[in-house]
Design goal:
alpha/beta, 6 helices, 5 strands
Length: 199
Amino acid sequence: MLLPFLEPNRIEAGCDEAGRGCLAGPVFAAAVILPDGFTNDLLNDSKQLSEKKRYELRPVIEKEAVAWAVGIVTPEEIDKINILNASFLAMHRAIEQLKVKPQHLLIDGNRFNPYQGIPHTTVIKGDGKYLSIAAASILVKTYRDDYMDELSALHPDYGWKQNKGYPTKAHREAIRRIGITPYHRKTFTLLPEQMTLGF
């Protein structure tokens, strides 16, 4: 059973990211503030749900949430500031778009760069513990998947519709065969032997 809040009677925003371990595409983050008394028996960590269930829950979350937003950090920015900082920046970009200012942030994970003086609590595997983080995990997963599906139409050889930019065997074989796109993260180990390829 997921918890509705960390502390009652304050505005808490749950935050989660997606795409951190990918070889291609942006990293996305979402922030969600749920109303007092919000319940949904289906809501859970997005990784525990089928794709169909995630897309069924997305409009419910968007309709019921007090506020929600999605932030994006590009592959170019990831290469400049590294993926950990990019994940924090994506969360910051989501938080700054919220129409209601949170009094506290619930962050999925164990590290975070503070955001504009708003107190925060990091929660390991928080998407399986708190409703607001679970809601953020569903929004961020579905919005990033949609984006990677669009990129897949432009670059069909890499199998992004299936792998969403993650380092599958087929994805790496396509990199080996035809090289990289502007959407690949050049600072990542795209191929095990890339040191000899002059990436």
